[in-house]
Amino acid sequence: MLVAGFPAPVFGTNCYVVAPAAGEECVVVDPGIGVEEQLRRLLVEHRLRPAAVLLTHGHLDHTFAVTPVCGAHGVAAYIHGDDRYRLRDPYGSLGEPMRAMLEAQFGTLAAWREPADVRRVVDAELLSLAGMDVRVSHAPGHTEGSVMFGLPGAPDGLRGVEVSATLLSGDVLFAGSIGRTDLPGGDLATMMRSLRDKVLPLADDTLVLPGHEGVTTIGRERASNPYLLQVMSS
Q1: Is residue 158 pLDDT above 90, yes or no?
Q2: Mean pLDDT, to the nearest integer, of 145-173?
């Protein structure tokens, strides 16, 4: 499995491309602010053809480029139904203080358009995309419709760690932390339940590709992440 990723120039949101191999169809995960040119170069480098865009949740830093990317390749965007509304008003769904900050930086988004084709995913759904099986895990807490995407197997070329599966965790789980829960739609108690029910049951040798910062494993987080430790002790 080919996995390539890079941080967006704004907010450092990780955008990933996942494919069975170079020269195949792929899925694009979380195209954030300012990623279009770097994503284009990555697709050319690996001779990849997008078959879908997957959104771990509806926050603007994960969705800003979804419409141009979907439009350029004629593909659908996949998002959980509980975050679908965020694609209609990506600033407003963050609350007024955040709206004011973002509008000061990026303008009013007067030209914002939703993707032409938006498909809703549900918990435990198995998506067959680009020749791969992608499992949806609804894990609310950061937002109402936050999801993680699981794939069997490990990225090609992985060194120094044994991996049986790969998890695109969005802003549910980070290396050493979790996504914030203080924005509209977030809830700490809900997040802790998601960690208990959706993260802790995963195998230790699951590679975690988070929405921000570097990669980790479930085993590493189980042993050191303070939020997982809190869940396990309660």
Answers
A1: no
A2: 93
User: 0.90 exceeded by the pTM?
Assistant: yes
How buried is residue 96: exposed, middle or buried, by Cβ count under 10 Å (0-12/13-18/19+)?
A: exposed
Residue/partner pairs of 211-215 with CB below 8 Å, 24 or more apart: 211/13, 211/14, 211/30, 211/56, 211/62, 211/169, 211/170, 211/171, 211/174, 211/179, 212/7, 212/11, 212/12, 212/13, 212/14, 212/171, 212/174, 213/12, 213/14, 213/174, 213/175, 214/175, 215/175
pLDDT in tens, 43-72: 999 999 999 999 999 999 999 999 999 999
3-class secondary structure, 170: strand
Contact 29, 121 (CB under 8 A): no
The interaxial angle of helices 36-46 and 66-73, nearest 10 deg, is: 40
In terms of Cβ atoms closer than 10 Å to its own Cβ (0-12, 13-18, 19+), residue 44 is exposed
Q: Is 110 helix (H, G, I), strand (E, B) or coil?
A: coil
CA distances from 100 to 13, 76, 104, 107 (A): 20, 30, 6, 10
